[in-house]
Amino acid sequence: MSKHDSTFLDTSTLTPRPSPTVPKPTFSVLGHTIINASPAKVRDALLDLSNYGKWNTFIPSARIKRPAAGQTSTTHMQQGTQFEFRVKMSEKSITSSKELCTFVEPVKVASEGDEKPTTTLRWCFDSSGVPLLGYLLRAEHVNELTDLGDGRTEYVHWESFGGVLATLIKWFSGKGLGQSFRNWAEELKRYVEGQASG
């Protein structure tokens, strides 16, 4: 079913998983689930920053900081959108993270006889304006939505961390981040399936 092997999909580990801008990460966190909805519905939920607080306990709020060139939506990210996540690192700690949406594919839909197509969305930690920060920390979040051809979507998402600070983040927050990414996938599943049945 999945384009990834069982080692890659093992959500319990911090195994490094490469991404386009972090090809040799220090560590990665991953979530994986099957959602009873189309890739288009899953994709829309991920792009709609205004509703993150309704379903994502790790990201209680998100907002666009700088629209992409020609962008008219004030709620949905697209390629080139700079946005901010409020991130709940622990019960007592909420921080902000500036992100840049770097890649949004049109939805790919399965047709009879074809391999299961995957639609990809990516964003990365945005260190623009602080060049040294880009050396200290690189992080990229990859979302893959595979149309299973039967009304379901396989959702795999991971974030890869590199740079000098990645080791400290792994040491102090890796386990918690891993749990947050597992939760993210399941919370997205509940939200999208609830929207589809509502």
From TrEMBL:
Question: Which SUPFAM superfamilies does this entry report, sorted A to Z?
Answer: Bet v1-like (SSF55961)
- Annotated segments matching region Disordered: 1-23
**What is the name of the protein in this document?**
Polyketide cyclase/dehydrase
State one Pfam family annotation. Answer: Polyketide_cyc2
